[in-house]
Structure formats: C-alpha cells, structure tokens
Design a protein that fits this description.
seven-stranded parallel sheet; three-stranded mixed sheet; 14 strands; about 20% strand
C-alpha cells in the first residue's frame, strides 16, 4: 500500500481529503499539531472521524523532531502538505512577511528529510487568490501574496531535492465539517427565523462542494505520483455571484426543510478584492448533486441540535 503523509488533516477540507485518499487505497498518515484532548467542538469531531480513515499522530507539528522522525519511520511516497497557519487571512492588513515565515517554518527540514527517506513527490495546497491563479495575474489579497511566495519557495526546495512538485489550487469549498463560513452564517440566521444578509453579493467566486474537491485531490495525488514533474491542479465548481450562490443554497435548503430561507442582498459598493476569481477545471455533474445537498443540510441539522451553530467558531 502506498503511503501519503497528509498535513492539515484535522481541518474541514483536510478531513475530506484524507477520506478520499483512503478510499483510493492510500495509507494515510496524518500528523496533527495538538494532543487529542486539546481539540474541542467540531474540530474534535473531525479528529475522531479522521481516526477512522487515517493513522493519526498527535503532537507532531510540521518540522518538529516528532514529525521528522515520522517521515523517517513511515517513508511516505507522497508529502501532501495541506496545513497552514493563517490567522486573520481575510484582513486587508494581513502581514505577508509573517505569514510566509510561519508557513515556511520547518519546511526546508521536512523536504530534506522526505527526500532522504525515498519520497517521490510534494503536493502543496495553493489558493486561487495567489498571483497567476483564479484568472488573475496579481495576488488578490495580502494573504494571496503570502501563499504565492510560500508555494514558490516550496516548489524550489522540492526541485532542488530532486522531487516532483504539484500545487492543488483551492477555490471556495463548502460542505459538511465546515464551520464559520458563508453558509454557516446563512444557517445561523435561518434557524433563528431571520433573513440572512449578503454583504458582498457582487463578487464572483468559485464554490466547490468539499466531496468533489477531495476526489479531485485524490486524483491529483495519483497523477503526481505516477507522472512526476511539476503539475498544477485547478478544480472548479459553481462559478457565480456570491448573491446567486446564496440563492442556490437557500433553494436547496428550502426544498429539504420547513425554513423560509429568506435573503437580503446589500448593495455592494466597495471592492477591495478582484470582482472575479475562479479555477478552470469544472467538476460538477448536475445528476449527482442531490445526495450532496441531502448530507449537507443534514450536517447543519446536527450542528444546530448540538448547540454549536450559534456558538463562535473555533
């Protein structure tokens, strides 16, 4: 069985990726930052679910002695680096230099250890806010710039170590196991009988269901392992106005619940980010989407029942 070392697997998208990789026959080793007892709320539930599909190693942050020992012991074929330290990434004054420093901490040592252990390829997570991604030449935000610089450095380290390198570009994922995102705010309002407010309806973004994202990730991992070289993967979902996406969600939820799912679109006059950002490789199949919406709405019913929906996301 081929082994992949997947960082960031306790995140919303990371859990889906781990599940998809395991489903494709990979042995998923998932080092996580904290001790098991330090995870709470939805993140604790994600970690418990992660243990069903992956070998979870606690208290092994990227680049730490425990992490480097793990690389040597497991000798993974693929280093799938999905973890990121991005506090305040939506803020216009996001510190680019500090962001790059945080996300490159331990990476040179990790890539060197991975190459020495016989590793073949590095698959890094990117964002469509980076320079040259999402249809834009320039980074869409300070966070996007930090990711551009981080991934360029990781690519060069991998190249210098004789490794294949891939970048998997994340659009705007949504689905079960998320917290604190756009649809979370919609459900917070709807479950209280209020209309949800959309404050940036005119941005055009690429909204991709997490299960599709994860299947694309597993496919990318296989292509990189088999073909090598340098590759970029840009999966795409619903490319539409944020206001139209909220309307889409409202229709799907209304069809499955008794909630009114009212929306109020504010007039958007400020555009500190590019109006449009989207990937270029469509994935969705209308005939297969209904089951996703069923589990998505059920997820929010469970979150509401647990009392976590109205709490501040961790």
């Amino acid at each position: 069985m081929t082994t992949v070392l997947l960082t960031g697997a306790s995140s919303f998208t990371g859990l889906w990726m781990a599940d998809a990789l395991a489903g494709e026959g990979w042995h998923v080793v998932a080092p996580v930052l904290r001790a098991r007892g330090d995870y709470a709320g939805i993140r604790a539930e994600r970690v418990r679910t992660l243990e069903d599909v992956a070998e979870v190693v606690f208290e092994a942050p990227v680049g730490s002695p425990a992490f480097l020992d793990l690389v040597g012991a497991k000798r993974p074929d693929l280093l799938a680096h999905h973890a990121a330290d991005i506090p305040g990434y939506r803020l216009p004054d996001y510190d680019v230099e500090a962001g790059v420093a945080r996300n490159m901490a331990g990476i040179p040592e990790t890539i060197a250890a991975f190459a020495s252990a016989g590793g073949r390829a590095v698959l890094a997570t990117g964002t469509y806010f980076e320079a040259g991604e999402g249809g834009g030449d320039e980074a869409a935000s300070p966070y996007g710039l930090s990711k551009s610089l981080t991934n360029a450095a990781q690519r060069d380290l991998a190249r210098n170590a004789g490794l294949a390198f891939g970048k998997f570009v994340i659009p705007a994922p949504f689905g079960p196991w998320e917290e604190g995102r756009l649809v979370w705010s919609l459900f917070q309002a709807w479950t209280q009988g209020r209309a949800a407010e959309i404050r940036t309806p005119e941005y055009v973004r690429d909204h991709l269901p997490a299960p599709y994202l994860a299947l694309a990730y597993a496919w990318a991992a296989a292509r990189l392992r088999e073909d090598g070289g340098e590759q970029t993967f840009r999966p795409s979902g619903y490319v539409e106005r944020v206001g139209d996406f909220a309307t889409r969600v409202a229709g799907e939820v209304r069809a499955r619940t008794a909630m009114a799912c009212d929306l109020v679109e504010h007039v958007q006059t400020a555009f500190p980010e590019p109006r449009r950002r989207a990937n270029a490789e469509p994935l969705l199949d209308d005939a297969e989407e209904a089951p996703f919406w069923d589990i998505y709405v059920d997820y929010y019913d469970q979150v509401q029942t647990s009392g976590l929906l109205q709490a501040t996301a961790a």
